[in-house]
Specification:
By secondary structure, the chain is an alpha/beta fold. The protein is about 35% helix and about 20% strand. It has a domain at about 10-30 and about 40-135: 3-Layer(aba) Sandwich (UDP-N-acetylmuramoyl-L-alanine:D-glutamate ligase). It contains twelve helices and 13 strands.
Length: about 350
């Protein structure tokens, strides 16, 4: 893998927690919504699914290379899937000392189903090793936060308990790390009510999650209006917080504390959009580590997400500097000079 052309890093490491797991994809026949007691024919798809922390950490590590340290905090089962995922993460250079393999626990697993029109959903185990990640487990890695005090990124991603993510953000606050977090739609009310956002420097959410923040229905609303309403509410809650909002084919919005910037999506024929939001966030983080302003880092995030959806897998292991550069050319994506320099 060839990393981005980064002359100097603004941050030296990323310490993150979130789900580590795998899944399988099943293509349903017919577009009507699966009924409660319905039996439906379909077929398995040759697609590899990964969970959030693994996806984000994979791209961050491969885009930034061996000079950057990626430290995942999580748990997998002592099963075949867990051993495979642990080895894949180690293979790309992650520091795996804080990913435990838990006996008698199953690695997180998702059964993802897809309708012919591209819609779909998933069923995910709620008793996996990932749910055993608790505040005490996060605090046991406190020395890592101290080691990168003032020069690290902390990532709090879904699929581990909220309490563990809060512990990570609190450690990051104490040691002056850049605090990056995301919350799914179900979690967003708690994040708002319990003051989680006061611990966040960069909030990364999708347009549905933004609608929960704004308190407006997504259906029938222009994505731009939803994004602006969400940013306006977040400005009142945490005035200094940066915000990144993704909306698939409608592009992304970024708020840097002063300006709201929209970046159009890449022109691409998608194979699977699964994992695109996580790919976007990884590009955003890599851009910030490379010293880009948020608006330029958005462009890099859009490139990583755009290329990722051309793969059937939720981690596209071909993504590196050359493939991103070639993709930017074929997709006709307008790029700032700072982003082009990273790809040269």
């Amino acid at each position: 893998m060839t990393p981005l052309n980064v002359p100097a890093y603004t941050y030296r490491a990323m310490i993150g927690t979130g789900g580590i797991g795998a899944g399988m994809f099943f293509a349903l026949r017919g577009n009507h919504t699966l009924g409660r007691e319905e039996s439906r024919l379909g077929r398995f798809l040759d697609r590899h699914d990964y969970c959030k922390l693994h996806i984000i950490a994979h791209y961050v590590q491969t885009l930034l290379g061996p000079q950057f340290t990626t430290i995942p905090l999580g748990k997998v089962g002592e099963d075949d899937i867990g051993r495979r995922l642990w080895a894949e993460m180690a293979e790309v250079g992650m520091d795996m000392r804080h990913v435990a393999r838990v006996p008698d626990a199953q690695t997180m697993f998702a059964f993802c189903y897809a309708y012919p029109d591209g819609d779909g959903g998933n069923l995910t185990t709620d008793d996996s090793a990932s749910v055993q990640v608790d505040p005490a487990y996060i605090r046991a890695a406190a020395d890592e936060f101290a080691r990168f005090a003032g020069c690290g990124v902390a990532l709090a991603a879904p699929e581990v308990p909220m309490a563990a993510r809060k512990a990570l953000l609190e450690l990051a606050t104490a040691h002056r790390l850049l605090r990056v977090a995301s919350f799914n739609s179900e979690e967003m009310p708690l994040a708002l009510d319990e003051g989680y956002l006061a611990l966040v420097d960069l909030l990364a959410i999708n347009i549905d999650e933004a609608s929960r923040v704004a308190g407006i229905a997504l259906e029938g609303q222009p994505a731009d209006a939803v994004a602006r309403a969400a940013v306006e509410r977040l400005r009142q809650i945490a005035p200094q917080m940066m915000v990144a909002i993704t909306a698939g084919k409608q592009g992304s919005w970024g708020w840097d504390g002063e300006t709201l910037t929209r970046v159009a999506p890449c022109t691409v024929v998608p194979v699977s959009a699964a994992g695109a939001g996580d790919a976007y966030l990884s590009g955003l983080i890599a851009g910030l580590v490379a010293g880009l302003p948020l608006a330029d880092a958005q462009q890099l995030g859009g490139l990583v997400a755009g290329l990722s959806v051309t793969s059937p897998h939720t981690i596209d292991k071909t993504i590196q500097r050359e493939t991103l550069r070639n993709f930017a050319q074929t997709a006709g994506a307008p790029l700032a000079a700072t982003v082009r320099a990273l790809l040269d």
